[in-house]
């Protein structure tokens, strides 16, 4: 187990531009030409299936804060069920050749989710959740993460309070998140008129059922599962206690820091891309204007 | 131990002196507070506002907490009723202290706070209080088996057969993602029975339909007893817990509001 989550001899990096395709096409069976080329490859068996990755620690290592029984059910039944359902639903469609995050965003379909969405999102969410915890976790973050927390929330305690509040007030099933928001709009020509370093900031969000902040183009840093199955065996109805213990004794701040690092790097990269693209567009417009002016001046010189 | 006929839980206003306290407009008597004005919609502010007024009370299920063993354990009922249901009542009362929604019956409160699809903050709590009241009364020890008389006839008319209805109900419950409820409702416009599932706290009252049976599909309702085996929980509910007596009473009342078209249905 472990390793790449996607095995496919035909795996190709799907650029974000392809996600612009009409959404229902993802669920159509892969076109014939692909199947023909599959038959030629006889050596490697082609499976485009997602795997059930185990948590990076033994199932009883989070005791007494999260019991082995909870992990056995939560990972072994709930998470596994979603992986199996996801594989069944995307088999034979274009979605099965995409990375999990791309499947989540594509099947979210900008707010009208397609059937594979709940399973894809829950697989991603649970993977993320197991990796947000570690035995002997808790304590406080440090370095860049702590700096950002203090900048955006005032203090670590205030961030904790807001996080617990979000987790407690998520009515029904869902998740609470700490995420890094790079303040982008999902519209081609949108430009932030007064960009500043503070636009890229930490936020706390809560989401219902299977939704996660990837669909809003945030970079999630930390998640807590507030579906009742996550805490009912250990804490019964005391969700607030569960979230407190999660923050005090289970959360892995090292991993959160490394996620933040990746998120800020990604945000910087995308900002540079945008800048470059805007400059190219400007040059193009300038060239076009020059041509038009040339044509206009010709017309003007014609006699009436 | 017989099943005594309950007044339907959404009966408003008048109550026979109940052996069970019923969660309608009642408050704990507080000494020194003058009587409230009887007009609806006016928030009565008392000068001695230090005492808490309880606007709605928690009802007790019509059976002891261990009466549904082994299908629903006593521990589940202790938590589900004693903690979750009670929390909803307490939270609702806390919210109502500050809001002008005083003086409604529970059903009215749900419709008002649903606000045609843009729910006010009190909606979740109010609806969950009502849903849970309804749910306790939808179950009985020695329940399950088949409905009788008029309910069975109506089910056979609207679903072709009881087993068809049962399959539809189970499928609907299994297909529910997240937290929610599954209902057998009498649709007032189409004048027929139907299975609906709702998310979180929504209940069919908000659309003007009349619920007949409810099943709580929030995980807290079954996790201690069945863990993630929802199918077993739903089947157990249908085979051993659902109270067709309660369903009969509710159909009886519903017929006063919906003309089912065939006066020959013997309901009782």
TrEMBL record, chain A:
GO annotation, cellular component aspect: chloroplast nucleoid
Location in the cell: Plastid, Chloroplast
Keyword Oxidoreductase: yes
Gene designation per UniProt: LOC103718751
Species of provenance: Phoenix dactylifera
Enzyme class: oxidoreductase
Entries under InterPro entries matching the protein: Mn/Fe_SOD (IPR001189), Mn/Fe_SOD_BS (IPR019833), Mn/Fe_SOD_C (IPR019832), Mn/Fe_SOD_N (IPR019831), Mn/Fe_SOD_N_sf (IPR036324), SOD_C_sf (IPR036314)
Names of required cofactors: Fe cation
Protein name stated in the entry: superoxide dismutase
EC number: 1.15.1.1
SUPFAM superfamilies linked: Fe,Mn superoxide dismutase (SOD), C-terminal domain, Fe,Mn superoxide dismutase (SOD), N-terminal domain
Domain Manganese/iron superoxide dismutase C-terminal: 141-259
UniProt keyword Zinc, yes or no: no
One term of GO molecular function: superoxide dismutase activity
Record-stated family: Belongs to the iron/manganese superoxide dismutase family.
Top-level taxon in the UniProt lineage: Eukaryota
PROSITE patterns tied to this protein: SOD_MN (PS00088)
Keywords, ordered alphabetically: Chloroplast, Iron, Metal-binding, Oxidoreductase, Plastid
GO biological process, one term: response to light stimulus
Manganese/iron superoxide dismutase N-terminal domain boundaries: 49-133
Pfam families reported in the protein's UniProt record: Sod_Fe_C, Sod_Fe_N
Automatic annotation (TrEMBL), chain B:
Protein name in the entry: superoxide dismutase
Designated gene of the protein: LOC120111521
Organism: Phoenix dactylifera (Date palm)
Cofactor list: Fe cation
Keyword Transcription regulation: no
Metal-binding recorded as keyword: yes
A Gene Ontology term for the protein's cellular component: chloroplast nucleoid
Species classification: Eukaryota, Viridiplantae, Streptophyta, Embryophyta, Tracheophyta
Gene3D superfamilies for this protein: Fe,Mn superoxide dismutase (SOD) domain, Iron/manganese superoxide dismutase, C-terminal domain
EC number: 1.15.1.1
GO function terms (MF aspect): metal ion binding; superoxide dismutase activity
């Amino acid at each position: 187990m472990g390793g790449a989550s996607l095995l496919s001899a035909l795996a190709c990096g799907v650029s974000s531009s392809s996600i612009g395709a009409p959404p229902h096409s993802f669920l159509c069976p892969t076109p014939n030409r692909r199947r023909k080329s599959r038959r030629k490859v006889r050596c490697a068996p082609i499976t485009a299936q997602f795997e059930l990755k185990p948590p990076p620690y033994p199932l009883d290592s989070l005791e007494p804060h999260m019991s082995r029984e909870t992990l056995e059910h939560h990972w072994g039944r709930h998470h596994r069920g979603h992986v199996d359902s996801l594989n069944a639903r995307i088999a034979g469609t274009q979605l099965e050749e995409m990375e999990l995050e791309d499947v989540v965003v594509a099947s979210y379909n900008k707010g009208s989710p397609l059937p594979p969405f709940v399973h894809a999102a829950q697989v991603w969410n649970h993977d993320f959740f197991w990796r947000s915890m570690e035995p002997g976790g808790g304590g406080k973050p440090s370095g860049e993460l702590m700096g950002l927390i203090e900048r955006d929330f005032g203090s670590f305690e205030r961030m904790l309070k807001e996080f617990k509040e979000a987790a407690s007030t998520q009515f029904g099933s869902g998740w609470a998140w700490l995420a890094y928001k790079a303040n982008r709009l999902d519209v081609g020509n949108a430009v932030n008129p007064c960009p500043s370093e503070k636009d890229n900031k930490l936020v706390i969000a809560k989401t219902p059922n299977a939704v996660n902040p990837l669909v809003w183009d945030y970079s999630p840093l930390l998640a807590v599962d507030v579906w009742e199955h996550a805490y009912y065996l250990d804490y019964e109805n005391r969700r607030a206690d569960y979230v407190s213990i999660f923050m005090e004794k289970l959360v892995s701040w090292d991993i959160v820091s490394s996620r933040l690092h990746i998120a800020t790097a990604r945000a910087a990269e995308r900002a540079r891309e945008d800048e470059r693209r805007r400059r190219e567009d400007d040059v193009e417009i300038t060239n076009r204007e020059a041509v038009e002016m040339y044509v206009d001046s010709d017309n003007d010189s014609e006699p009436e | 131990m017989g099943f005594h006929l309950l007044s339907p839980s959404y009966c408003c206003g008048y109550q026979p002196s109940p052996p069970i306290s019923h969660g309608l407009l009642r408050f704990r008597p507080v000494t020194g507070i003058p009587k409230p004005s009887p007009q609806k919609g006016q928030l009565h502010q008392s000068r001695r506002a230090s005492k808490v007024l309880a606007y709605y009370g928690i009802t007790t299920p019509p059976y002891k907490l261990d009466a549904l063993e082994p299908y629903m354990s006593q521990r589940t009922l202790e938590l589900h009723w004693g903690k979750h249901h009670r929390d909803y009542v307490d939270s609702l009362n806390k919210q109502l202290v500050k809001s002008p929604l005083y003086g409604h019956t529970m059903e009215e409160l749900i419709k008002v706070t649903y606000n045609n699809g843009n729910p006010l903050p009190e909606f979740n709590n109010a609806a969950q209080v009502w849903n849970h009241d309804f749910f306790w009364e939808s179950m009985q020890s020695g329940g399950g088996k088949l409905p009788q008389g008029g309910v069975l006839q109506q089910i056979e008319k609207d679903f072709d057969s009881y087993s068809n209805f049962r399959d539809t109900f189970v499928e609907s419950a299994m297909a529910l993602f997240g937290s929610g409820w599954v209902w057998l409702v009498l649709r007032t416009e189409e004048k027929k029975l139907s299975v609906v599932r709702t998310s979180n706290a929504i209940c069919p009252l908000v659309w003007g339909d009349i619920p007949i049976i409810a099943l709580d599909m929030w995980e807290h309702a079954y996790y201690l007893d069945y863990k993630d085996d929802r199918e077993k929980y739903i089947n157990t509910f249908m085979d051993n817990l659902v109270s067709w007596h309660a369903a009969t009473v509710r159909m009886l009342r519903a017929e006063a509001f919906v003309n089912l078209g065939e006066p020959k249905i013997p309901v009782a």
